[in-house]
Every structure is written in C-alpha cells, then in structure tokens.
Amino acid sequence: MKTHNILVLLTACAILSLFLPDVAYAQATQNQAGTYIGTQVCSSCHNDLSDHWSHTVHSKIFMNNPGNEIERRGCESCHGPGSEHIIDPTAVDKIIRFSQNAPSPTGEQNRSCLQCHAGGNRIHWSSSIHESNDLACADCHNPMANFSSVNLLVQNNINETCFMCHKEQRSQFNRRSHMPLNEGKMSCTDCHNPHGSNTDSLLKTDNVNQTCFQCHAEKRGPFLFEHAPVTDNCLNCHEPHGSNHEKLLLTARPMLCQQCHTSIGHMNDLFTSGNLATGSRPDIRLIGRSCQNCHTQIHGSNHPAGSKFQR
Which residues are 242's β-sheet partners? Predict the structure, then answer.
C-alpha cells in the first residue's frame, strides 16, 4: 500500500512537471506583453494612419459597434498592448507590425488576424501552400486603408492582388483564348480559395473537373459513352487560364487528338510534311474543326449510336 502511494505521488509530480514550463512561459508572456493604453493614445501620434483607418470596416465595427472584448481594444486588437511601445517607440519589437520587412514573425502577424477571422473559408489555412511559403495576411490585405472596393486588398481587385506573385498566370490570361477574367466576368477566387483547401492548387472543389463543371454543367454527364481523358481530367486537353489555341486547347487539332489516337488505317494517321496543307488544296482533316468535323460530341454522347462520339 505504501509503495502504491509513492508511485501515485511520483506519477502526479511527473504530470505536473509537464505543465510547469507552459505555466512559466504564460506568466513570462503576460509580464512582457504590457497593458492596453487605448486607441486615443495611439491616434495622438499616428494621426495619418488613424485617418486612413477610420474609413475601413474594421474601424466602423471596433469604434462604433464592438461585439467582444477584442474588438473594443481598437488599434490594440491587432497590434497588441501598446504600453511598452509608448515607453520606447524606437524598439520595433515592442508591438506587432504588419509587413514583409517587419520584425514581427509572419506567424505572429497571422495569429493576430486569425483571432477574429478563423474558420469559414480559412479553415484550411494551416499548412496550406500559402501558409507554408510564409505568406502573411498583410501581403494580400491592407486593413489600414480602402485600396479596393471589397476585402481590404492591397490592390484594386482580387485578380491584381493574385498577379503580384502569379506572373505566369497573368501572361496566360493575356493569350488569344482565355477565361473571361480580364473582362471582369470572373475572378481567381471563382475557382481557387487563396486561404487554403484540400487540393494542391487551392481549388474550391474536390478536383479540377468539379471546378470546371460549376460553369460547364453540360460537360458533366453522365454519358452513355464517356471519353476517357475527359472523365479523367479536363486539363488533359485544356489550359485552365489561357492558350494561344482556340477553346483553351493545349495544342491545335488534330495534333491534340493524335497524342492518343495514332492507329493505322483511319483518318487519324499522324500527319507528315507530305499531307499537311499545301498550295490551294489543304488536307481535308485541317478544315473546320478537324477531328470534330465528325466526332462532334467529343466530351461524351448519350446517343445509342454514339460510341464514336459522332452524335
């Protein structure tokens, strides 16, 4: 019985020792964090920033209709307690600052935003490709001024904000065949969730095809006769952002079809320099829509005689 009590005591001490470092760290953090001084004190020095911020949705909520204790702190809701910053304004590490060059670690900056903006479409932010690449909320958003019509972005709109990093996609959208992004009919976030998703490409749906089907519902099926590469992935034939070929195709028809269809004894035999368009009599397979002159239902057919996607 005595031995049992000793073992229980030792076990309790061991468990307690696991929490002591956390308790000590929490106490040290509390002592280091300082105290809240109020928005009026912040504005007395940062007049210009306060004027810009006063027009934002954050200011209207925090100052006019705060919903909780965090929102009632005003400036210090995001920047943390300002007492030590007042004591030594030149010490840049005494308050949370938001920028790529700020001494505050990216994780600390983002945690300040996520204390209010967690959940929703940000539920997959942790370990997302943007978070893994040390992207800060302030790289895309500017909560201190209204540069955009919505979402407090650092650029005029969503697309321009994304293009700051995604230069290749910007060039693709300038090709002759492209998604109607430049025309204002859609934005990057119609297909992607920049705050994280279950897919590598930050798609808002489970896969590429489901994303495309949001607009191209007629390609969804189900079909009596399915075209295997279509069912597998739309990107087998199409560029998702823009292409120099019609219909956002990877390459021109019939070359695109001939990447898979190379059988002998049919009109899909590979072209050579001898049967390409020459003079005034081009090869019939280069006229109109090429292979789709006959195989019109290339995405799939529900016709009983549609096994070759001809109807």
Answer: 178
pLDDT digits (tens, 9 = 90+) for 252-311: 888 898 888 877 667 666 665 555 555 566 666 666 678 888 899 999 999 999 999 998
Number of neighbours of residue 183 by Cβ within 10 angstroms:
8
H and E: helices and strands count for the chain: 15, 4
Selection from 169, 172, 170, 177 nearest residue 245 by Cα = 177
- What whole-number distance in Å separates Cα of residue 257 and Cα of residue 267? 12
- Reported as type and span, the H/E element at residue 300 is strand 300-301
Q: Quote the tokens at residue 180.
A: 């109607």
- pTM of structure: 0.80
From residue 252, alpha-carbon distances to 55, 258, 264, 278, 283 in Å are: 51, 10, 21, 18, 15
pLDDT in tens, 72-104: 999 999 999 999 999 999 888 899 999 877 889
In Å, how far are 158, 269, 274, 299, 310 from 255, measured between CA atoms? 36, 10, 15, 17, 19
Pairing of strands 300-301, 177-178: unpaired
CB 89, CB 104: distance < 8 Å: no
